[in-house]
Design brief:
Structural class: alpha+beta
Number of helices: 10
Strand order of the largest sheet: 2-3-7-6
Number of domains: 3
Shape: globular
Strand content: 15-25%
CATH architecture of the largest domain: Up-down Bundle
Length: 364
Amino acid sequence: MISFTPSEEQQMILNTIKQFATDEIREIYRECEESGEIPDDIVNTAWELGLIATGIPEDLGGLGGEQSAVTGSLIAEELAWGDLAIAMKILCPALVAFPILEMGTEEQKRKYLPAFCDEKYKAATAALIEPRFNFDPLALSTTAKVDGSDYVLNGEKCYVQLAAEADLLLVYAAENGSNQGFIIEKGASGLEIGEREKNMGIKALPTYELTLKDCRVPKENRLGGEAGCDFNRILNRSRVALSAMAVGVGRAAFEYSRDYAIDRHAFGEPIASRQAIAFMIAEMAMEVDATRLMTWEAAWKLDRKEEATKDSSLVKMYADDMVLKVTDGGVQILGGHGYIREHPVELWLRNGRGFVTFDGMAIV
């Protein structure tokens, strides 16, 4: 039976992340949006919380705790409530660490996971999305073919976070009709990183296009070795993470516009007392809460190793619609003020619009 009560450990983590998001992220997120840069200090402070190292075994340098999708969803929501771009950068190394932790060979775990337990932030990322209008994560155009002792990868990727600074990249490619992951180290021959992309939202987070031209990857760097990886499970975990982040962004917009409507007076009364606005606020609250519950259920099934494709797919679709609807509602409630940069609702709307294209950009 699903429990909606966080464990004592989960509650402690949740309280810590809430405090961090309030005291640290919310203090600088607008400045980061304007400058296009996220200070190393805040990323390193978050890294010290052990959000990734916690789930790594002690003999590999980690803290030996449980790697839980439910706990990860709680963390992702709170960080995204603070700011989506900063949340994505903080959690970006998990895109490599978590798949290796769950599906990597013993050699891959010993070689790569200790680096995610160091004191300083480990820049690592994954490349899934391809720059074509009919992109389907289950039908990748990027290919991987065996050539001697190597795999040869060819294709193009986009929205690759931190690609220019990442020491490790987990690139997904089609191999004989199934998607597999390939661990590529910085500076690999045939790996070309383009200029930083100019995005509508998440402006503080650097993303890049990358090109694979006969990029050679040793066979031992195929995620999971000969057994390969369960790409569908990785995709489901990404859907749940993005849904949790959408809840965080939607909640931020709901809370801000609700408080604004209570404080803003027109014709001698708060605008929140007007039925049209009150109904809109109520519907925003319902949509955020409904998405959160769907996210938790899908995460719960992932933790129990149950089939979660239907649940994660449905919640991702629902979350994509919810976050756009709720953030747009925030802009509407603020009226003319919603369109100016003095208020953050316009930022949340731009970030919310991107969720439908963020496949594979987060994981729990």
